[in-house]
């Protein structure tokens, strides 16, 4: 096993070391979780599921609240999934805050989140897991086509890792309903197709992105930003809003909208340089994609499907993503 993974296993979360808030069951072993899940079935209670990598914030809590509205019980998984990190990415430093996560869930009140599964890497990946995909063994799930553009360009194996772990968890948790945040819109489309293609008997919901008052979309990775970076990071939501207002005013040419969004990012990049900061803003992509299948749009945006405008921007070393869905029917 490579060095990063050894470290990750040590950091991973034996629940013995954590104080479980009253009313929330915390499981380390899949078999124990399954036993609890079976008891709900026997009791004819429904289960809503929120998959997470921990470092919970209000965005996650809004998914838990949405799940609890529709289901008798809500379970979360907290698992920093190695398979969705490239060897160059932040698996080793990804925030791991289990005690805080459990306390946040408890703050929602008793009877909101019922259970949290915090499995070990070895149990999730019995054949082992290498970050280098050419060395991987075992079973992986790929959702072809839709995984390759946008995020897939910069992170070629990311959705393979996500689809693999989410399908494992859907098998383990067996929820009636599962809840994802629109913030990771491509992930939502990929998982929606996977649920359809693999006939998981689970209804999927896509819930709105939660933002700070400033407009910054909540993300577990926002903790990496310095105060000044956080200020400049507002350019993502600002340029999305600008593109939206052009669209609402009648601009339907995708290229024109992309150029308008890109200009605001480039202007912000210059501001950072002029301020003499020792970090940079770098645009990865601004894109307009079909609201039906995420195919990239260049010319006219067809009125029947709506569109997803999305972007990825490096603010210093932190890669941030954000999107708006315009006239798109999100599953519910
Ligand atoms: O969105 C996330 O936090 C992760 O990609 C997910 C869905 C929990 C899979 O690891």
From TrEMBL:
Keyword list, A-Z: ATP-binding, Ligase, Nucleotide-binding, Pantothenate biosynthesis
One Gene Ontology MF term: ATP binding
Keyword Metal-binding part of the UniProt annotation: no
Keyword ATP-binding: yes
Reactions it catalyzes: (R)-pantoate + beta-alanine + ATP = (R)-pantothenate + AMP + diphosphate + H(+)
NCBIfam families assigned: panC
Name recorded for this polypeptide: Pantoate--beta-alanine ligase
Organism for this UniProt entry: Mucor saturninus
């Amino acid at each position: 096993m490579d060095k990063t993974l050894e470290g990750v296993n040590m950091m991973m979360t034996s629940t013995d070391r954590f104080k479980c808030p009253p009313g929330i069951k915390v499981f380390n072993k899949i078999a124990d979780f399954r036993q609890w899940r079976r008891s709900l079935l026997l009791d004819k209670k429904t289960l809503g599921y929120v998959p997470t990598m921990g470092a919970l914030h209000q965005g996650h809590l809004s998914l838990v609240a949405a799940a609890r509205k529709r289901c008798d019980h809500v379970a979360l998984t907290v698992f920093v999934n190695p398979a969705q990190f490239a060897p160059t990415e932040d698996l080793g430093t990804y925030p791991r805050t289990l005690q805080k996560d459990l306390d946040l869930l408890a703050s929602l009140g008793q009877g909101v989140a019922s259970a949290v599964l915090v499995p070990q890497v070895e149990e999730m990946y019995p054949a082992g897991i290498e970050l280098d995909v050419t060395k991987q063994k075992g079973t992986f799930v790929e959702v072809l086509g839709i995984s390759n553009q946008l995020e897939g360009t910069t992170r070629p194996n990311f959705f393979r890792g996500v689809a693999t772990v989410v399908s494992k968890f859907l098998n383990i948790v067996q929820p009636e309903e599962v809840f994802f945040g629109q913030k990771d819109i491509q992930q939502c489309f990929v998982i929606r197709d996977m649920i359809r293609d693999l006939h998981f008997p689970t209804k999927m919901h896509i819930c709105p992105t939660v933002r700070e008052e400033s407009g910054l979309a909540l993300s577990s990775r926002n903790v990496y930003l310095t105060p000044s970076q956080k200020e400049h990071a507002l350019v993502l939501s600002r340029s999305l809003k600008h593109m939206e207002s052009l669209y609402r005013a009648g601009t339907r040419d995708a290229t024109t909208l992309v150029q308008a969004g890109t200009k605001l990012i480039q202007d912000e990049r210059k501001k950072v340089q002029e301020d003499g900061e020792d970090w940079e803003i770098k645009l990865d992509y601004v894109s307009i994609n079909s609201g039906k299948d995420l195919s990239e749009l260049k010319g006219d945006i067809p009125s029947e499907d709506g569109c997803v405008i999305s972007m990825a921007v490096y603010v210093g070393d932190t890669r941030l993503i954000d999107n708006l869905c315009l006239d798109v029917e999100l599953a519910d």
